[in-house]
Amino acid sequence: MTTTRLSWKFPATFWTANVIELFERAAYYGMFIVLTLFLTRIVGFTDIETGWLVAFFASFLYLAPTFTGALADKMGFRTALALAFVLLSGGYFLLGFIITKFIAIVSLLLILIGGSFVKPIISGTVAKSSDEAHRSRAFSIFYMMVNIGAFLGKSIAKPLRTELGLEYINYYAAFMAFIALLIVLIFYKDVDNSGKGKSLKETVDGLLTVLKNFRFMALILIVAGFWAIQGQLYATMPKYALRMVGENAAPEWIANINPFTVVVLVVPITYLVRKISPVNSIGLGLLIIPFSALAIALSPVLQAATGDSVSIFGLFSLHPITVALIVGIALQGVAECFLSPRFLEYASMQAPKGEEGLYMGYSHLTTFFAWLFGFIASGYLLDEYCPNPAVLSPDQTAHAYDHAHYIWYYFSGIGVAAFVALLIFKFITDRIDAKKAA
Question: Which contacts (CB < 8 Å, 24+ apart) does range 265-268 have?
Answer without folding.
Answer: 265/333, 265/334, 265/337, 266/140, 266/143, 266/144, 266/147, 266/336, 266/337, 266/341, 267/140, 267/141, 267/144
